[in-house]
Known about the structure:
Elements: H1 14-24, E1 29-31, H2 38-43, H3 50-55, H4 59-68, H5 81-92, H6 99-112, H7 123-136, H8 141-147, E2 150-154, H9 164-170, E3 177-179, E4 181-182, H10 185-188, H11 195-206, H12 213-229, E5 234-239, H13 249-260, H14 267-288, E6 291-296, E7 298-299, H15 304-310, E8 318-319, H16 325-337, E9 343-348, H17 354-360, E10 373-375, H18 385-398, H19 418-436, H20 444-463
Helix pairs in contact: 1-19, 1-20, 4-5, 6-19, 11-12, 12-14, 13-14, 17-18, 18-19
Amino acid sequence: MNQFMDRDFLLDTKCAQHLFHDFAEKMPICDYHCHLSPKEIYENEQPSDISQLWLSGDHYKWRAMRSYGIDEKYCTGDATPKEKFLKFGETLGWCIGNPLYHWAHIELQRYFGIDTPLNAKTAEEIYEKANEVIRDGDFRPQTLIAQSNVKFVCTTDDPIDDLRYHKLLAAQDLPFRVLPSFRPDKALNINLDGFADYIEALGESAGIKIKHFDDVITALLKRADYFNEVGCKVSDQAFDYVPYVYADEDEVDKIFKKAMKGEEPQQKDTDKYRTAVMLALGKKYSELGWAMEVHIGAMRNNNTKKFLALGADTGFDSVGDCEIAQPLSAFLNALEANGNLPKTILFNLNDKDNTVLATMLGNFQSSETAGKIQFGPAWWFLDTMDGMTAQMKSLGNLGVLGKFVGMETDSRSFTSYGRHEYFRRIMCRLLGRWVEDGWYANDDEMLRQIVEGICYNNAVEYFKF
């Protein structure tokens, strides 16, 4: 029997152990998509305890606790930090098969030097020990990022953001860079409450009065230029499915004006508006040399009662099952036809779409960049051992896995970099098995380039950091 999460955790062949310990383990981290707060990174405050570090804002942990039957007061409510941690510890002991179990123990081992499994029996002991380590050590955000060997952090930022904290961080002498990412979702969501107010704020940020649809595009393009000046290299869009319904500008302008008056658009009109915005933005991203991330497949805010009480991003989202192949192809093709297709990373949340995305890549590749169209890493509900393995197998079967840009945390936690280690172990497990089974040549130099590329080098080259 193997020891619990020991040095060779998940590395079940000699080749896998070699690939991880000699190549992957030492590589820096390029975290090209996350939800860390640049304000918190800049202010750089020491956390009060492990509950603040771990449980504040982490909907993965809240979701598990609710599934175990824990009352909401211990998730987002007014329970004490210790009470919340003890309830999480009790929950975690039952999470056999959940990556949350592995993530938590990697973080306990790497950041706190704690090898004891966390469960109801050990939670209080671990809570006290972890807090002692925090009191005696430096757990400020900048220290955690640097000690995790992170070189690039791309946050997720609204077009109206003034990027003040990114500028302040750029002026500091840090061993890593914090760069903004352009996330125009609120400008795309013409069907949601608050759209008109947001458009007014967008106009103010761009210094223009938005009266027509073309003013929306002007404002977004101006903000993209501003983000570019502050170092942005990445855009990010999230859709339950990729919209593609073409309409001329006059029709889109009429749809926009109705929405500004408070009329809720029909689904087809929403898609016409979003299509027009995304075609304009895609062209801009291409001109700027940015990568366009497209996250597909989340069905959000399913529990209306909890959404009204707690708001978005609190653990009530799930996987959608929309058909994505035809509209995604039409969208990419429309950009490609006019020479406007930017570097693109496609993320799916439903594993039924693995083959769709892995084959879609080959339709639109270009010699301008290796792997110009990327199959993004397993994301959110697919960010599991099986999900990551399936994504890499699909890309290996149908594309060029060796040019994959690799993992990102998609996280709000400063200790979540253990997810990169988890991914790297799973990757080395997969590649090691292929080599030991004779499916790939035991060429150490070629394997080193592939492993180091997927861990870090491919992303740095792809994003031109």
